Please model this.
Amino acid sequence: VQLQASGGGLVQAGGSLRLSCAFSGRTFTSYDMGWFRQAPGKEREFVAAIGWSGSSTAYADYVKGRFAISRDNAKNTVYLQMNKMKPEDTAVYYCAADPSYSRVRVQRYLEIWGQGTLVTVSS
Model:
């Protein structure tokens, strides 16, 4: 499996950005997907996850109500729509894949990662 994240960039506080993660190499619908982030000087943390069908989603409390995860199984792509962004959202964002919905929310279990895309939110 290969994951290619894209869509990062510079945005002002209060603005929006959409990240994409393209999946290849295996059957996309066999995998649940997650987004994680790592801010400068901090450990990587969970952001959001989505089940293979898109019907199950989960969010970290610090993004709930502002971020939305979705997937397009026809395009083998998972998205992270980020709204009402804050400077503390500044981080490198990584997508991850796992056949288990419970595991895809816990980074220590994950072996399939994208390369990361940098998001910077200016105040």
Q: What stands out?
A: The two ends are 37 Å apart (CA to CA). The CA atoms of residues 35 and 99 lie 15 Å apart. The chain has a mean pLDDT of 97. DSSP finds no helices and eleven strands in the chain.
